[in-house]
Design brief:
With 181 residues, the chain is α+β, with helices and mostly antiparallel strands. 12% of the residues lie in helices and 30% in strands.
């Protein structure tokens, strides 16, 4: 396995780190909730600056802070032609959830929580256990390697709907582990 191809990069935005790109496509909002549900216990290895058990979807407020921090630059936060699921409900329908990006960094739309397609993906947020006040917003940090059902997931170099973003395997569990070297 080639380490850099499996290292997830995240951007510091306030008290969270948010992946700089979608890591999986063809994943519904419901899938993200089910895949992240298994509680991960903390071990000595995970008690560093980041707690992988806190991987989740960003809120729209956090996503907007990411857009501000990245100056809405697609080369930094990779929003073009790919929506990212957020935690928030669509104001018009309780069956829909917020998706962000695609047409612009701040574009907001709603998608059915059960929908899987190549346009919408999983961009995780990570809560920082002990944020370093000296680390400025916008700092890019390697947070680890994403594993789907125990296998490392390659990070796409072309994170768009027609790019090389891996597909989610329905029913698979997701976890973040220490970055592969």
């Amino acid at each position: 396995l080639d380490g850099p191809d499996y290292q997830v990069q995240a951007i510091k935005a306030g008290d969270v780190l948010i992946a700089d790109r979608v890591l999986l496509k063809n994943i519904s909002w419901n899938d993200t909730q089910d895949a992240l549900r298994p509680e991960q216990t903390e071990t000595q290895d995970t008690q560093k600056a980041l707690n992988p058990g806190k991987m989740r979807l960003p809120t729209c407020e956090e996503y907007d802070l990411l857009a501000t921090t990245a100056k809405e630059d697609n080369d930094t936060m990779h929003w073009s032609y790919m929506y990212s699921w957020c935690q928030d409900e669509d104001q018009d329908s309780m069956l829909k959830r917020a998706v962000r990006g695609y047409l612009s960094a701040r574009y907001w739309n709603g998608d059915n929580a059960t929908n899987r397609n190549v346009h919408v993906g999983f961009r995780p947020a990570f809560e920082v256990l002990h944020p370093d006040p000296l680390t400025p917003d916008g700092t890019i940090i390697t947070v680890g390697t994403l594993y789907m059902d125990g296998k490392p997931v390659r990070v796409s170099k072309d994170p768009t709907k027609d790019g090389t973003v891996p597909d989610y395997i329905p029913g698979a569990s997701l976890e973040m582990r220490e970055a592969l070297d």
